[in-house]
Write a structure and sequence with these properties.
About 65% of the residues lie in helices and about 0% in strands. It is mainly alpha-helical and about 130 residues long.
């Protein structure tokens, strides 16, 4: 049951489901619903998993080997996640908005038949510069 896993993980992190929900701006009525057996929406699971620093598979009952395998990140993914975790809630919301905007744009064929598969140097250069400075 989702709530039992959430409660156990919160205890390990020194908090409670209700306190965590408040910190994340999630209504405590959601916590009560989960306690009564309802399942949270995916966006809630993503927010909780991120705040508790666990893969979402933790809440799906995946075993440790499956979780480790699914949580292996590329260097780019790890860097993005690190930056995301440092942002305030408003910044995180902007990231999600921009990500979905990019996905929508990706569904539209590029004008003039241009191939969008090669990386834009304007995007890649700052990433490489930060890595070189490390």
């Amino acid at each position: 049951m989702f709530f039992d896993q959430l409660k156990q993980l919160c205890a390990m992190k020194g908090t409670t489901p209700t306190a965590l929900a408040r910190d994340l701006g999630i209504s405590t009525s959601n916590v009560t619903s989960w306690k009564n057996g309802s399942s949270p929406k995916l966006d809630m699971v993503l927010r909780l998993a991120s705040a508790l620093d666990v893969p979402i598979g933790y809440f799906a009952g995946e075993d440790d080997a499956e979780i480790r395998k699914s949580s292996e990140l590329s260097e780019d993914e790890a860097e993005l996640l690190d930056v995301y975790r440092q942002l305030r809630i408003s910044g995180k919301r902007q990231i999600f908005g921009k990500a979905y905007e990019l996905l929508d744009a990706q569904k539209t064929p590029p004008e003039g038949g241009e191939d969008d598969s090669s990386p834009d140097i304007g995007v890649v250069a700052p990433i490489l510069e930060r890595r070189i400075k490390k």
